[in-house]
Amino acid sequence: MSLLFNEIIFGPIHSRRLGVSLGVNLLPRDGKLCSFDCVYCECGYNIQGKGKTGMPSREEVSHALELKLNEMKEAGTAPDVITFAGNGEPTLHPSFDAIIDDTILLRNKYFPKAKICVLSNGTLVKKESVFNALNKVDENILKLDSAIQETVRRLDSPNLRTFSIHETIASYKKFNGKLIIQTLFVRGTHNGKTIDNTNPLEIADWLSALEEIRPASVMIYTIDRATPEKNLVKVPVSELKEIAAKVKALGFKTSVAG
Questions:
Q1: How far from the centroid of its chain's Cα atoms is residue 93's Cα?
Q2: How many domains does one find in the chain?
Q3: How many CA atoms lie within 13 A of 100 on its CB side?
Q4: Helix (H, G, I), strand (E, B), or coil: what is residue 60?
Q5: Nearest 5°: phi and psi at 73?
Q6: Integer distance in angstroms from the first to the last C-alpha of the chain?
Q7: Which residue, 124, 126, 243, 120, is CA-closest to 179?
Q8: What's 130's domain CATH number?
Q9: Dihedral sign from CA coordinates of 11, 12, 13, 16
Q10: Phi, psi of 135 (to 5 degrees)
Q11: pLDDT in single tens digits along all 258 residues of the chain
């Protein structure tokens, strides 16, 4: 069963990686819209459709966010982060850059200590407005599940046939370290093919990509909720910690969420 966020603003929820997180969904509230179709996505596959509500306007997002922040202020509840996630890829919103600007102003007004975070698959970072907006947020968290093209195709299923993980890595390098890499490790099968981004070759290529990108830190985790592909299994925390140790050996900060 997929989990869709049926509001523009959701939570706050306790995130394994981010703490008390107030979520912002820039995608349709009754469907999914994403440039990836990951086999592990808690929102389900893209085939379910993008629904009928459409994307909220910049004004709707700002209004809904201010109402919630004011409510939390009056209740004495502070978020650790305001997180752009939701039912797909947030940078697909045509007003993404302007919405980030609005959010910075509202954050500064209500909870200046809260961070602004974007969870993105990185497919639109080559777009100048998206790149500039991501450079403004406190935590620019970009996906890198594998540095091997075939594995990315199998695990993340990019919509564009021209998608290149090597071009993505090159785009990540342009942030000059102002990004956090997020990687989900998983094993299983999909459409009769093996999925495993934890084998020695995968890890070696992934570590090489990290050395190229030089991120501020690396987030490592595995599946936690129901996935659309049922033949997937969690990677034990002990193995995630072994991978994290290799990252730390390269000089990068890392965190593990099992």
A1: 15
A2: 1
A3: 26
A4: helix
A5: -65, -45
A6: 21
A7: 120
A8: 3.20.20.70
A9: positive
A10: -70, -15
A11: 457 778 999 988 887 667 889 999 999 988 899 999 999 999 989 999 888 889 999 999 999 999 999 999 999 999 999 999 989 999 999 999 999 999 999 999 999 999 999 999 999 999 999 999 999 999 999 999 999 999 999 999 999 989 999 999 999 999 999 999 999 999 999 999 999 999 999 999 999 999 999 999 999 999 988 899 999 999 999 999 999 999 999 999 999 986
DSSP secondary structure code for residue 33 in this structure:
B
Tokens of residue 181, six digits = 């890499």
1 within domain boundaries: no
Domain-located, residue 4: no
What domain range is 215 assigned to? 9-257
Report the candidate in 251, 256, 218, 217 with the shortest Cα–Cα distance to residue 235.
Answer: 256
The answer to the question of residue 103 being in a domain is yes
Report the C-alpha gap between 160 and 166 in whole angstroms: 14
The full length of the chain comes to 258
Q: How far apart are CA 245 and CA 66, in angstroms?
A: 41
